[in-house]
Amino acid sequence: MSGVTKAQTIEEKQYLVRFNADTESHLHVLDHDTCLSKCPDKICTIFCPAEVYKWEDIRMHVGYEGCHECGSCRIGCPHENIKWVYPKGGHGIVFRLG
Ligand code: SF4
Ligand code: SF4
């Protein structure tokens, strides 16, 4: 046995978490027109590790159920266009290890 640990793929890492999604989103894009007209790179679709944000023609779809609660979108949106709060108690991501 080599003792070298193989790097995990994102899919393997995702297997280590599960979600207890709330029925209401804890994430809100405040103004979809800002995304459309002022944010050509739609960088939330890049920096979010959970691929929560998906651009759909003229508005941003927010798949809040898969949010990892890393907080990046609180500071990553260049237009402060994302309202982010923690999910209500008992909801959100649950880690299987630790
Ligand atoms: S980074 Fe902000 S402004 Fe840009 S697309 Fe995402 S939510 Fe909209
Ligand atoms: S908190 Fe992190 S995982 Fe959740 S939507 Fe924002 S960037 Fe994505």
From TrEMBL:
The UniProt function text for this chain reads: Could be a 3Fe-4S cluster-containing protein.
The record's family statement is: To ferredoxins from P.putida and C.tartarivorum, ferredoxin I from A.vinelandii, ferredoxin II from D.desulfuricans.
Keyword Electron transport recorded: yes
Which PANTHER family did the record assign? FERREDOXIN-LIKE, FERREDOXIN-LIKE PROTEIN YDIT
**What keywords tag this UniProt record?**
Electron transport, Iron, Iron-sulfur, Metal-binding, Nitrogen fixation, Transport
Q: Which domain of life is it from?
A: Bacteria
Gene Ontology MF terms in the entry: iron ion binding; iron-sulfur cluster binding
The keyword Electron transport is assigned to this record: yes
Question: What is the protein name stated in its UniProt record?
Answer: Ferredoxin-like protein
Q: Which SUPFAM superfamilies match?
A: 4Fe-4S ferredoxins
Signal peptide span per the entry?
none
InterPro entries named among the record's database cross-references: 4Fe4S_Fe-S-bd, 4Fe4S_Fe_S_CS, ETF-QO/FixX_C, Fd_FixX
Question: Residues in domain 4Fe-4S ferredoxin-type?
Answer: 58-87
